[in-house]
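Task: sequence design from structure.
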């Protein structure tokens, strides 16, 4: 769609914050309206209606809330996806009413899940139902604000809360990127995750919109690549208050992560460089990251891109016409580097069915 294809990451030293300096909010809004954005929950749940990610998230959140659910409440999850977290909360706290809303098509999946579990205290809907069911005692904003260019959504959420109502915000934890490595090169810096918040930065942002810091915690949840994903959870209250303490430098943490990624890229590149050329299966975000920024594909002598969608890919001043994977593998004797993030093992199996002896690399 109309998302930026080249990223510039900027650093705000005073707020200890990193952010992407391109793109338009309306283009991102259109993207998320078309996206079912909870696939990683489905992958890890193995067909169950309960997500292991949300079970863990629920545990940390309830602990941070203390005795909050000791009486009936009204809770909104803004950007709920398939409502995986609300399903866990609604089952444990039947006297509380839970509303989940999301701009994308995942809400219907969430509604079906809640119905299948017989949960009567949960409503999953589009954005039009928000004001009808408010005001709320708690608003949950889980893995949403890292995707926003325009933070004025926080104005709306402030108006939807009762006096002294609570806001729970959860985002990726950039201070731990280097500790929790991903299989893809520079995975954490993509065009979807446009903001990288330290506790210091997140607290200061929310203070601008009338939220005072209460507490925060860090944890890691299981991720689809077999590792764990670092998360930062923060509880705030609808009031002015302390803006929290200083955090370690996000710039130092990011540079450490980037340095380690480039070192890993050189090791992969040294293997690929022994071949005359390489077949690249996939032309998504991971392909672009790996082809630039001293990535493992940035210095290839010859490259052919495999993709079932006929298209022209432009990168580094060159244009490549994507070839059908089976035809490309049959035509060229080169190894296959798979850049697709999800389903990469299935693609490896496809390569082996076409040519059992063909070397395969994951990039």
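Answer:
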């Amino acid at each position: 769609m109309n998302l930026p294809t080249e990223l510039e990451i900027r650093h705000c030293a005073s707020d200890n914050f990193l952010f992407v300096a391109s793109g338009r909010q309306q283009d991102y809004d259109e993207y998320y309206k078309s996206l079912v954005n909870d696939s990683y929950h489905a992958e890890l749940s193995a067909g169950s209606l309960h997500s292991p990610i949300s079970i863990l998230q629920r545990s940390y959140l309830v602990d941070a809330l203390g005795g909050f659910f000791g009486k009936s409440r009204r809770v909104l999850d803004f950007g709920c996806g398939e409502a995986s977290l609300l399903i866990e909360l609604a089952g444990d706290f039947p006297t509380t009413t839970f509303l989940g809303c999301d701009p994308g098509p995942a809400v219907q999946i969430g509604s079906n899940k809640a119905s299948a579990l017989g949960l009567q205290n949960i409503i999953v809907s589009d954005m039009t139902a928000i004001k009808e069911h408010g005001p709320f005692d708690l608003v949950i904003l889980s893995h949403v604000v890292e995707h926003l260019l325009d933070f004025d959504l926080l104005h709306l959420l402030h108006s939807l809360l009762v006096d002294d109502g609570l806001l729970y915000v959860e985002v990726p934890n950039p201070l731990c990127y280097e500790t929790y490595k991903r299989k893809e090169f520079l995975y954490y810096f993509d065009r979807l995750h446009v903001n990288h918040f330290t506790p210091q930065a997140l607290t200061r942002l929310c203070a601008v919109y009338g939220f005072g810091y209460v507490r925060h915690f860090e944890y890691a949840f299981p991720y689809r690549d077999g590792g764990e994903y670092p998360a930062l959870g923060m509880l705030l209250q609808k009031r002015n208050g302390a803006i929290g303490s200083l955090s370690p430098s996000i710039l130092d943490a990011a540079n450490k992560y980037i340095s380690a990624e480039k070192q890993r890229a050189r090791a992969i590149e040294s293997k690929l460089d022994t071949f005359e050329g390489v077949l690249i299966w996939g032309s998504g975000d991971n392909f672009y990251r790996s082809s630039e920024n001293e990535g493992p594909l940035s210095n290839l002598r010859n490259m052919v891109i495999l993709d079932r969608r006929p298209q022209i890919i432009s990168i580094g001043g060159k244009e490549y016409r994507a070839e059908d994977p089976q035809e490309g593998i049959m035509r060229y004797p080169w190894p296959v580097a798979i850049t697709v993030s999800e389903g990469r093992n299935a693609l490896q199996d496809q390569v082996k069915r076409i040519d059992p002896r063909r070397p395969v690399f994951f990039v």
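Residues 273-362 form a domain with the Rossmann fold fold (CATH 3.40.50.720).
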